[in-house]
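Good day; I would like, with your permission, to put a structural problem before you. What I wish to show you is a protein chain and, alongside it, a tokenised description of its three-dimensional fold. I would ask you to consider whether the tokens describe a fold that such a sequence might reasonably adopt. You will find the record immediately after this paragraph:
***
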Amino acid sequence: MTRPVLLASILVCTSVLTATLGFNGYLIHAMVIALIGIAWLVLHSLNKMPLDWLAFLLFSLASLILTWLDVSHWLVLTCILTALLAWDLTAFETKLQGIPPEDTHPMESAHFTRLALVFGVGLAGIVASGFIQVTITFGLALILALLSLWGVSTLVYRLRNRG
């Protein structure tokens, strides 16, 4: 169950970023993102992706650039959440290696429950931010986005180590 969701999240993140950049006239950037996404898929399929955090970082930075380009925040949210999901599931899939298949189902179920909680809280925060309007500079927005990314990553890390 983990692998199909992982591959789908990489594909969704790559597709949304590529299409959004392409439709906004950044064709070269869209091609670079597409190549990075294809490389991430291929290398992960070959189990040769030791630097999945680097792909996550690149996709997160590309999502932040979409914010700067004034793209819909729902597209940016989709990109960041699917990149975070792919990064987390890559580490989880590595953790599952060597465990008998009959024992993985309860672990996957518990992990997906925790992920749903984390993403639900994040989505609730995004929806709430739609009702609260505050004017801030791009620099402050970038700092807040990076702090939020760090906070969610820390929460996922702590939840992962707990179970």
User: Anything to note?
Assistant: The chain has a mean pLDDT of 84.
